[in-house]
## 1
Amino acid sequence: MSIELEGLLTEIDHIAIAVNELDLAVRWYEENLGAICVHRELVESDGVEEALLKVAESYIQFVCPTRDSSPVAKFLEKKGEGLHHVGYRVKDCAKALEVIKANGGRTIDEAPRKGSRGTTVAFVHPKTSFGTLIELVQE
Ligand code: CO
């Protein structure tokens, strides 16, 4: 693998937590941790509504299903509320995905796609990434 990897990963973009009620989670973080909700978005393609609370240069992202067929609804049913995925900010999402696939890794997205906030994202299967669902996020 001759692709240059240095500097590919630039920041933790967000920690995503699956919740049953978005407003309750946001309020708890605001009232108990002083975190501020800076963005809310309905992501139709994923069947979720999300809320982003800024912490320094990163976010806490709450994800809440908007329909039963949403992967997050299935996650909540199976595991209950809790840590859902970690979003790593990358310089080049397509390149990061290409490296993982070239090394035999399993991905959920075949190619980068549109994420919330106008980002470009791709998910890596937790079977490949040591039990944690990874989202590669390019701003
Ligand atoms: Co995410």
## 2
Amino acid sequence: MSILIKNGRIITAVDDYQADIFIENETITVIGKNLSMVADKEIDAAGKLVLPGGVDPHVHLDMPFMGTYSSDDYETGTRAALHGGTTSVIEFILQTQGDTLHNALKTWQDKSLHKAVGDFSYHMAVTDFNDDVAKEVVQMIEEEGITSFKTFMAYKGALMIDDGQMVQLMKIVKKHGGLVTVHATNGDMIDSLISKNLSEGNTKPLYHYLSQPEVTEAEASARFADMLHYTGCPGYIVHMTCEGALNAVRKATHRNQKVFVETCSQYLMLDASKYDQEDGAKWVMSPPLREKKDQEALWAGINQGLIQVVGTDHCPFTWEQKQMGKDDFSKIPNGHPAIEHRVEFMYSEGVRKGKISLNKFVEICSTNAAKIFGMYPKKGTIAVGTDADIVIFDPHKTHTISSKTHHMNCDYSAYEGWEVTGKTEAVLLRGKIAIENEECKLKPGDGKFIPRGKSSLII
Ligand code: URP
Ligand code: ZN
Ligand code: ZN
């Protein structure tokens, strides 16, 4: 199968030029002006942006969490991602405390291998570290293509590890060329604030926000950066929300230390006023939405190169699932639906509103995640020899976000009525048409596991 994309404006993290792209089977084989090959299919991309497929390194699909499961599975979640221009996702395997990493891997393979519509990889969440797990960490890197290890400094009793375990994990991961990622909030402080609020009868979603003040994230981010510095291990802070945490990383960079940072589209677009609404449970996520001044700090952090990646932390729960916490905010399953619109949001809110350049847009939505997590250049750019994961993007088309039209398995949208300029028009996944005329042409099992190597941004 061959495809010729004609007349598009190709944007990568560093380039912006007009050319044609010739694809044979899964790979881009020629890029040039006025290509005249005869292809099985020709796509006219005149007036359109031609982007590398989006890479979202922070999604939760079919994840057991807070007594239920996130409502998108590998099929519905990766399909929704494709509709919005994200061709690869990295999801989280959760080790059960007291059990092995290999057992968790098997469970996640069963959920994903025959169901994924788009490409995927896994981070391994280490929730219980000991000598046996240390051996498995090495096997994950060397045998399974899983090179990033997620840790939680919160969710005590379910996912959290202590600082001693963290440091031991960092030492072994550093030795074998991997990366430690973290949910950086101070779990003990948060748990005590939750208990205090509940004991005073404060049960509404607003108290989810008030139980996780900025300091809980700033403190844990600084502590994580210090532990990285002590062990020499490279690290990545997921879903950063606030100025205080960003300043902790800024300080760490003064030691010439590498700490990668991800924020998520919601923290750039929404603020904590959502928790005053009757339906505030829709935005109960951890860390919570913050203030306008934090949004400004995060956009600036992107341009300063302190934040490299914008993910989604997609972790949807239906409105019925959210009712688990109707009388107690601490029982509302944490997370919101977001996997579908990240690329369009970053174009509309970032590029169109003059906050970021087109190249930066590609960097934060695709290239940097591919580089940090060892998938580059197969994923994350448009060049001869790379996977033909390509988004044809209409930069002028306007549309309105709604649960009536989205493809995520969630009965509400956290962005209902949001006006967006810029739309994913067509998507190719490894040289196959994935999205055309708003329809998904791929089926469960067409998405492939991406074994990952070492990060190309770690020296
Ligand atoms: O609220 C969130 N973020 N839910 C998913 C789990 C996590 O902490 O990333
Ligand atoms: Zn988290
Ligand atoms: Zn998450």
